[in-house]
Design a protein that fits this description.
mainly alpha; 2 domains; two-stranded antiparallel sheet; 11 helices
Amino acid sequence: MDAQRVLADADDRPPALCPRCGYDLVGEVMRWQGACPLDGRCSECGLELRWAEVLDREQRHPAWSYEGHGGAGRLVWTVCRGAVPCGLWRRGREGRYLGMGHAVDRQRLWVVLTVGVVLGLGVGAGALGWVRVSTGGWRSGVVAALGLAYGGMGTVLTMAAGLIFGESLARVRVRWEHFWRCATYSVIPGGLLGAVGAVVSHEGAQASADAWVLAGLGVAPTGMALWWWRAMADYVRVERPLPTAAAMVVVGYLAAFTAAFVTALRVG
């Protein structure tokens, strides 16, 4: 496939855009000599890309993706994948995972966000109920409730911290729709990890074991750091994914801990 053939129907096609920054790469295509290379690099943001993904105007979402195809079954499967750090995206295997070339469906992302919030609240309520029944004490319920609030606030504040550390995203000119896609899916593991951390923290409080309390407080941020690390490395593809994810989580969960601690003092 040569450049003239690729551009022959340019009037009927949208431009060849970089999936990360949206830069028009038609100029790169016009410099091809004789044949289309398999791989290339965006001259604007430096993203290593596959030309087949850039030039395919009907790039299909993975078969399991609710965002791409809809359906209750796919919604359940997408939520299950979202709970795992590498479940949604993985570099080098875009045929089965979400990539930046797949169009963002905001309406369906709202559905995913709603389901993630409801799931987190449901699991959290179940954990709180289990604590209350197993101990029969309101004080234990307060401990678990504060743990759940810490996990939930940490998830939201980590998203906000991503805006604070937006320099890493701006450096590679990442479109904000990619960040919001990551933020939406992060609600799924955030709710689950918050519930687990609440139970562990409660058990530590019951046993007066500081080590267990600290372990419970560390469950959610550790899990979210792993999740955001893989999102930054395999999906957004920033230059320093681990420091970026760690900085987001540290700021987000420190703010959440401060809010939960102040609340605990008022309750106590």
